[in-house]
Amino acid sequence: MSSNLQKDEKGVQRRKHGRQAREAAKKKKKKMVTLVVVEVIILFIVAGAAFAYFYMQNLWDKTETADFRKEDIATNPDLPDSVKERTKGYRTILFFGVDARNNTELVKGVNADTDIICTINEDTGEIKLVSILRDTYLETTDGKHEKLTDIYCHYGVQEAIQTINRNLDLNITDYVTVNWKAVGDTINLLGGLDIELSSAEAGAVNDYVGEVISKTGLVSDGKIEEYAGVHHLDGAQAVSYARVRSVGLHDVRRAERQRLVISLMLSKAKSAGLGTLNDICNTVFPEVSTNITLSEVVSLMTDISSYEISDSGMFPTQYQDQQGGSFFVYCNDLIDNVIELHQFLYENEAYTPSATVKKISQYIDDNKVLNPKS
Q: What's the pTM value of the predicted model, to 2 decimals?
């Protein structure tokens, strides 16, 4: 009796061990399957990231990059410490828009009709834009005195940046230059812009749009109806609107139009899908010159939803126009204008102009030519 019981107990134990072994095998198999699935997912993520990187790198290779290093861009040797401290936490970029009628020259040999300082508060995403009037009379790093648009044309983008740093006590090293086609292509891919025009502005758009279309090859509806009200503008029409300086106060009003176009473009880009943003990158990168790196561009695009243009203005706010002859915009006291600029862009109430800016200010005051002979 007891021997049979022992046999039964051994059988139960064998069955129990066998069941435990099968369950352990199932668990091990399940773990292996899970591990394989995770590895496949990770592989796809890595492959996707690699594809995205090399795809963006391929696009970036088509962009015209600067032939100078950021650290080679000159700033004033006596730049105030308050500027160095206050600009921390901001990304400051110079945007140039050039009238490259053949869609090729970007960094020299073309006029910079759009000259905008853009500051981005890296904590809040707040953006401020300041248009420098293109005819502003400034001093280059080697002591020449010309209007900003001509400095860009004659000496190139690096000297244009250095001149702005020198005259405005800034330490900007980043720039982006675009031509008419880059702006027009971007606007077309964003679906156009709705802009309110006066009848005079609508007529002025029609004066420019034919040239813009012929020089860029942009697909466009051409001339618009000349009525006061909201118009839906395509890329060529919006570029023409941004060129208008015959309606309103010459370059002051034109600079306002340019900032409005930028603001509307940013607003539409923020709500655009990834496909649209990809199309913009694919189309526009070859039409851009910049010294911003690919990784910096990707970072900026990643944060685009947080950006908001909070305010904008122009430089100088106090000025005199040269009447007749070669047109210049003279700062009415460069010192006061630069103080106002630093307060606006960086809320720098502690800023005191450098000796360099004071010297240039005195030179401008002494050499204004307000009524030259024809």
A: 0.83
